[in-house]
């Protein structure tokens, strides 16, 4: 127990407030730390991050700690599995000796080696290439800078239209203000940005081969989605908002022939019934 406390105190002296330590009621400890790649404190060059959590039972260091990774950003699933497996193997190979500092630094090394954004720009759907200019948001999502600039330009136009609608809405409660801001297209967090700098960045260049591949994949997916849409329409699973809003609306300036025909039949039946009743009571067709 004393050896664990000593190890944790050493870690706290190194990582200061960045380290979170909790002692569990049933015994053992949970140690967690948000890790970034080593970029000489240049935050703008940090494109990946994760929270490393290490659970220690009451037998540590004579039992292997349990390692888990939370809130990763910019890392593929394969890279995360590989990282966790590598750390677990290292922990198991060091049973009997303090290993927390070693695990933390090994995780930082792997993050530094993997310090490039993973995946595609969700705006243009193309991947990132070496030499292209891209932007990391505060929520750790990545876009080609030029693509993000175009997205923000469009979003700002939409916000102006929305502001105009709110101003013209006489039924709106003025005390209830709606927060309008350009948000991340992935997680919807508000964005901070320099629009001029983003738009002045060079646009990504796509080869004809990439266009053909993505174009073909898009057409296949579109065709498949269209089939699903038609099936849903046939089964009544898709609601037309305009048709639904007019469902119980009576148009007085439109004449429905079927409706008129039914009314004429009904009126004729009523007249015939009245005449028949009058005759039964001794009245002729002239009402005398």
UniProtKB/TrEMBL annotation:
Pathway(s) annotated for this protein in UniProt: Protein modification; protein ubiquitination
- Gene3D superfamilies assigned: Ubiquitin Conjugating Enzyme, Zinc/RING finger domain, C3HC4 (zinc finger)
Query: What is this enzyme's EC?
Result: 2.3.2.27
Q: Where in the cell is it found?
A: Cytoplasm
Keywords of this entry: Cytoplasm, Metal-binding, Transferase, Ubl conjugation pathway, Zinc, Zinc-finger
Specify the RWD domain's residue ranges.
Answer: 6-114
Please give one Gene Ontology molecular function term for this protein. zinc ion binding
For whether the record's keyword set contains Cytoplasm, the answer is yes
Gene Ontology BP term (one):
protein ubiquitination
Main localization is cytoplasm
Under catalytic activity, the entry for this protein gives: S-ubiquitinyl-[E2 ubiquitin-conjugating enzyme]-L-cysteine + [acceptor protein]-L-lysine = [E2 ubiquitin-conjugating enzyme]-L-cysteine + N(6)-ubiquitinyl-[acceptor protein]-L-lysine
Stored SMART domains: RING, RWD
Q: Could you name the Gene Ontology cellular component terms for this entry?
A: cytoplasm; nucleus
Q: Where is the RING-type domain?
A: 121-188
Pfam families in the record: RWD, zf-RING_11
Query: Which family, according to the similarity comment?
Result: Belongs to the RNF25 family.
- PANTHER family the UniProt entry points to: E3 UBIQUITIN-PROTEIN LIGASE RNF25, RING FINGER PROTEIN 25
Put simply, this protein is called E3 ubiquitin-protein ligase RNF25
């Amino acid at each position: 127990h004393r050896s664990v406390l000593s190890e944790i105190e050493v870690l706290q002296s190194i990582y200061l407030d960045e380290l979170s330590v909790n002692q569990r009621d049933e015994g053992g400890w949970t140690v967690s730390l948000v890790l970034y790649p080593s970029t000489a404190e240049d935050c703008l060059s940090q494109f990946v991050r994760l929270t490393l959590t290490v659970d220690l039972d009451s037998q540590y260091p004579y039992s292997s700690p349990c390692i888990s990774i939370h809130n990763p950003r910019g890392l593929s699933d394969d890279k995360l599995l590989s990282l966790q497996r590598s750390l677990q193997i290292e922990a198991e190979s060091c049973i009997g000796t303090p290993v927390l500092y070693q695990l933390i630094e090994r995780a930082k090394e792997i993050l530094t080696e993997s310090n490039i954004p993973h995946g595609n720009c969700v705006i243009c759907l193309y991947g990132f290439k070496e030499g292209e200019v891209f932007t990391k948001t505060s929520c750790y999502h990545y876009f080609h800078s030029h693509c993000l600039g175009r997205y923000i330009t469009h979003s700002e136009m939409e916000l102006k239209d929305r502001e105009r609608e709110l101003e013209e809405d006489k039924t709106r409660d003025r005390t209830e203000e709606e927060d309008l801001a350009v948000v991340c297209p992935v997680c919807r967090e508000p964005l901070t940005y320099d629009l001029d700098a983003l738009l002045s960045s060079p646009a990504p260049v796509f080869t004809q081969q990439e266009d053909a591949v993505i174009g073909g994949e898009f057409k296949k997916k579109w065709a498949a989605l269209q089939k699903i849409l038609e099936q849903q329409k046939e089964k009544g699973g898709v609601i037309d908002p305009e048709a639904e809003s007019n469902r119980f609306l009576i148009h007085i300036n439109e004449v429905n022939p079927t409706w008129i025909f039914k009314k004429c039949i009904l009126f004729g039946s009523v007249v015939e019934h009245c005449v028949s009743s009058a005759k039964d009571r001794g009245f002729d067709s002239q009402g005398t």
